[in-house]
Design brief:
Helix content: 40-55%
Largest sheet: 5 strands, parallel
Strand order of the largest sheet: 2-1-3-4-5
Number of helices: 14
Structural class: alpha/beta
Radius of gyration: 33 Å
Amino acid sequence: MRETRKPLILNVNDHVANRYMVSKMLKNAGMQAIEASTGHEAIALAQDPRNKPDLVVLDVRLPDIDGLEVCRRLKSDPRTKDIKILHTSATFVTSDNRVEGVEAGADGYLTQPFEPQDLIATVRALLRLHEAEANLVARNGQLVEADRRKDEFLAMLAHELRNPLAALHMGLPVLDRFPPHDELEQQTREIMQRQLTLLTRLVDDLLDVSRVTRGRIELHREPMDLAAVVARVVDVMRQRVAEPRRQTIRVELPAGPVPVSADSGRIEQVLTNLLDNASKYSDSGTTIDVRLAVAGGQAELVVRDHGIGIDAATLPAIFDLFAQATRSLDRSHGGLGIGLTLAKGLVDLHGGTIAAASDGLGLGTELKIRLPLHAGVQLVAAPASEPPPAPSRRRILVVDDNEDGRKMLRKLCELQGHEVSEAADGLEGVRTALAERPDVAFVDIGLPGIDGYEVARRVRAQLDGHSPVLIALSGYGSPEHRERAHEAGFDEHVVKPIKLANLRRIVAGVQPKA
């Protein structure tokens, strides 16, 4: 049977008889006792990691530095701050003395003379507190480690999901080169595109909500017209979710622009989540109202549905992670319960607020966002976008160990008229780049042999000024991964799946090698 460790008590007192009596009381109660007669000696013993005490019985009056100063030093030192301290004194006995001792960091105060049972009861109480706090610290460490592993798992999950998503995303444009044979094929392609878009958004949201809750989202803010963003998102969501569900989105916008300083992509993400929720939790034939106005010096955006509503008990927790208004085995409404958490986190980062209101079940839900106006900046309308001209023929290298993704990206590039080579691992990618000197190389990060970062370093070093434009392809999209890609020598970091428009933009900007 394992022997229970006896508590170790440091007994600090310059009076020999008093020090002896306290040590004897402690040992009679089954505890270990070590002794010190000065403040400096007490601090040295407490800081010894080989024999760290659980508690210090500390007399206030000492010959070098007083017990109050000893207490302050021990409590301010990370190595000793968790040690419990019990002040004792035969001369500092007033209530003011006790207050001064507690304010110095002491966990208890006894006035001498005291009975043995008073000392032991107080010491045991403080030891129980010490043990409870130690358990909480250990538990907190476990939770921090579990949270870290969760984040690593989510990042890995997104990476693994984005590989097949990339192949599917690149496959649909290949199919679109040929007209559908009949209406059934057309409908099938549209369904595949919608569901693929939904799956990609779910993966992105899953990663973003983890980064938002840890405060690791970077905003790229600039002056923008919120009204234009709302109009654009509403048009997209009408086609994507409302019309297939036979719902109507009714929008009310102010006559002029609504200037805010925001990350337009993130604001679109917030509004997309709100409209998707409103549609998901509403019946066919219902109306979703979107209203944007300026009120009280702020932009006020309201999304109101006439769906299932939220009961009063659930409403306070609606922005909590994984919270949902309803949970049923049929999962008819779908979703992960992260959309509103992500929306709140992004709105908070913009210095705004978001609030939910509902009159109850069956009476719909209203989400209201308020963002600070960005005054004093003249908004310039973006020029009408024109399709970029078809780029000249380029030499392209695709390095990816995922065969389906590699071959689909190759086919997609070849359909644009480019000459394409491929490699399935890092070392082969370096050899091919050195031998063929492509104009642009798309390099996956998670490669066997050597990873994509090392591929970039070696290609940059060996081709010097004649290296290709290097594009990192990865399922990992955190700022840390982007920064690491640039440090390794990549010109750009693209999160899988790469979109056709993005592919064309990258290749069009590449200057051909001589």
